[in-house]
Amino acid sequence: QVQLVESGGGFVQAGGSLRLSCAASGRIFSINAMGWYRQAPGKQREMVAIITSGGSPDYAGSLQGRFTISRDNAKNTVHLQMNSLKPEDTAVYYCNAVIRTTDWGAYWGQGTQVTVAP
After folding, report:
1. How far is CA 64 from the centre of its chain?
2. Residue among 51, 85, 84 at smallest CA distance from 69
3. What per-residue confidence (pLDDT) applies to 105?
4. 69 near 57, Cβ under 8 Å?
5. What does each C-alpha distance from 76 to 53, 59, 65, 82, 92 come to in angstroms?
6. Can you tell me the distance from the alpha carbon of 81 to that of 69, in angstroms, rounded to the nearest whole number?
7. Torsion angle of C-alpha atoms 92, 112, 106, 33, degrees rounded to 10
8. What's the pLDDT score for residue 64?
9. What is the per-residue pLDDT across 16-74, written as a single tens digit (0 to 9) for each?
């Protein structure tokens, strides 16, 4: 059984910052890519940022420069530093990881709400 648990969401004024964290636990043999996705009301879930096991990041084009993804392989954690937040960043943010237990699979966290007020 693998669990991804997010933390760090909340309410912030426009221009503010938040840091999201996600910890993977369970019977984990190895973790490949980890990432963050978000889903705003009435919209499809979209990729925010992903990072390889080697630490190479990739961002949705419109977010690069404001968001920074990082990971700690020793702790099975991934973080998302979000700066200069805008009201359009309001969404539920989900952690995702490709994890090998007995086989490879994609796992999701339960989501954490980020609300940015104008």
Report:
1. 14
2. 51
3. 96
4. yes
5. 10, 20, 25, 20, 21
6. 6
7. 100
8. 81
9. 999 999 999 999 999 999 999 999 999 999 999 999 999 999 999 888 899 999 999 99
